[in-house]
Amino acid sequence: MKILEVTQPAKIVKNTGKEVQIDHGDGTTTTVDTEKNPEAINRDSTGKLTISTSSSSNSAMAQKKKQDKMPRPGEKIAVA
């Protein structure tokens, strides 16, 4: 399943520091490896979480900056 095919609203279920598990509410989950892909989940200016689906910005080598805040379990996430 592609990340664009999931339903809304999704929320963070578990964050181990290396992986973030996202529950889509329909029985499916997505696991994002934040060690290999640190820029896959970002916060916008209002503090909401979004998943970036652009492959160039998702590259671990494209950007090496640290995230402002790590996602917490129970937070809502918008799939861009």
Q: How many β-strand stretches?
A: 6
Biggest sheet record: 6 strands, mixed
Figure out the total of helices.
1
Number of structural units classed as domains: 1
Proportion of beta-strand residues: 25-35%
Q: What general form does the structure show?
A: globular
Strand order in space, largest sheet: 3-2-1-6-5-4
Rg calculated over all Cα atoms: 12 Å
**Overall pLDDT level:** 76
Distance between the termini: 16 Å
SSE-based structural type: mainly beta
Series of secondary-structure elements, N-terminal to C-terminal: EEEEEHE
> Unreliable runs, pLDDT <50, ≥5 residues?
none
Helix content: under 10%
Q: Could you explain the architecture of this structure?
A:
With 80 residues, this protein is mainly beta. It has one domain (3-79). The chain has one helix and six strands. It has one helix at 55-58; strands at residues 10-15, 19-23, 29-33, 41-43, 49-51, 76-79. A six-stranded mixed sheet has the order 3-2-1-6-5-4, with no helix packed on it. The longest helix has 4 residues, at 55-58. The two termini are 16 Å apart. The mean pLDDT is 76.
Q: What's the arrangement of secondary structure elements?
A:
Layout: E1 10-15, E2 19-23, E3 29-33, E4 41-43, E5 49-51, H1 55-58, E6 76-79
Parallel strand pairs: 5-6
Antiparallel strand pairs: 1-2, 1-6, 2-3, 4-5
